[in-house]
Amino acid sequence: MSASTVLFLAILLCPxxxxxxxxxxxxxxxVTIKWSHNGMVLDASEEIVHLRNxxxxxxxxxxxxxxxxxTFYIFNSRNGCGLAIRDTELVTSCSYKSESYYWYxxxxxxxxxxxxxxxxxxxxxxxxxxxxEKDGSPSQKFEFSCVCCPYCFMFGSSCx
Length: 160
Hints:
Blueprint: H1 3-17, E1 30-35, E2 41-43, E3 50-52, E4 62-66, E5 72-76, E6 82-86, E7 89-93, E8 103-105, E9 111-113, E10 119-123, E11 129-133, E12 142-147, H2 150-154
Antiparallel strand pairs: 1-12, 2-3, 4-5, 6-7, 8-9, 10-11
């Protein structure tokens, strides 16, 4: 089966097999942002971001958009809004008017905000997700896992 046939079938079938994910996910994959400590993921099912067990619902799926300055926008698939800092809380918001929407994704697993304060995504007590000063601790280590259409893999194609 040709690669173009696989892609066509994956795009056609994706919406039927992946809950809350658009058909573009096979060639523009979503990711989960997983805390390295225990595998729980960032979840934006509400405005405030939480750490939850993996369900791969729309609130747990994110898209990364690279900016020319080395930072990224991190968009949530549930509402299309960006990951941002409000005070010390992580939220999704569609008001892209500040540097709190720009993130560095570092080799050490930290995700650090572009703002001058150098705040990193941090997991506090009781799995609360906050922005805290970057300190390199295990509570600030995350991994990205690609999520895409299961049919891509059934046809021997990797979209991630």
